[in-house]
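Q: What structure does this chain adopt?
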Amino acid sequence: MRIRNVFVLSTGRCGSLTFAKACEHFTNYTSGHETRAVDVIGPARFDYPPGHIESDNRLTWFLGQLAERFDDKETFYVHLQRDEEAVARSYLRRWASSHRSAIARVYGRELLMYAQPNSLRSRVWPEDQRLEVCRSYVETAN
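A:
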């Protein structure tokens, strides 16, 4: 049986880019990091060619759609992990940055906020609670 596609799942901040770069040395697979993550929605989001290794922390949120699109017998999933506290602290350092993929900040603002009674969607998490938000993101993604 030949593995047609490999999907590398992670929280991010755990070596996913390095993993993708290392896979570029393979001669029997192509490899990429977040190659379909920008400006692609719907079925095209998963237009990965056969024989491709894709590393993208956002794929964790699309496991159902990946399972519908790719045959389990021909697909291999890699779950990259790093010490959870180190990942959470790495995201905390990025919290106030202008980096577009401040995923822990967005997770806190857009997902966790809905679960809090009487909160405003635009509420900003206080600094003393942000590490907990980052820890929650890492636990949820893993």
